[in-house]
Design a protein that fits this description.
By secondary structure, the chain is of the alpha/beta class. The chain has one domain: Alpha/Beta hydrolase fold, catalytic domain (Rossmann fold).
Amino acid sequence: MTPSASPPPKPKAAPKPRAQGAAATGLVTEYEFAGARGADRAVLLAHGAGADMHSANLVAFADALAAAKIPVLRFNFPYITAGRRSPDRAAVLDAAIRAAHTELQRRTKLSADRLVLGGRSMGGRYASMLAAEQGALGLLLLGYPLHPPGKADQQRVEHFPKLRMPVLFVSGTRDAFGTPTELEGAAKAVRGKVSWHWIESGDHSFRPSKRDTGQTIADVLPTAAAAAVEWVAAL
């Protein structure tokens, strides 16, 4: 008796992409909200690459805004929630700030044109790209990372001509991510009104040279935060 032929092997199913939890979708699960309800404006603050939403630098601005009865929402990007040190892919960072943007609108009942977007370093950069696309009441850039240190030819400014809202740059005068001359030159492409608050001898974290100024970061942060509050309130 002739043995029956064995059935052909089934093709292997394509491997399923490995889930990354929050980081796979850009879902934001950690927020900090403060400020008065019923305000006519609110601020979204995104943290920088090397910190989280509880960094003293970011909290100083958030607390000053809340004290002025301006609602402010901070959040953690997914990689922070997942306990990783390296930032998420660009698409995930973008999705996360969009989710936080929507969350701020939900909590305040304000439309996008009544929101000030901003943040520290990387967070400010992603806020500026979102503002270029969707508009905003204003853009608050705390230590904008114009270029990687030592690579002044790699400026992150492609979206600047689409910024039609008022912009406040808060930066240190010895920031390795962008000197005053470089920042002022790049900001000429911004279509909205540009304002500046310079922290004398401040580095990328706003820490001043105590030898040159006699000041510490604890001395300069309140002044910088007060300038940001005054600017936001005047929009």
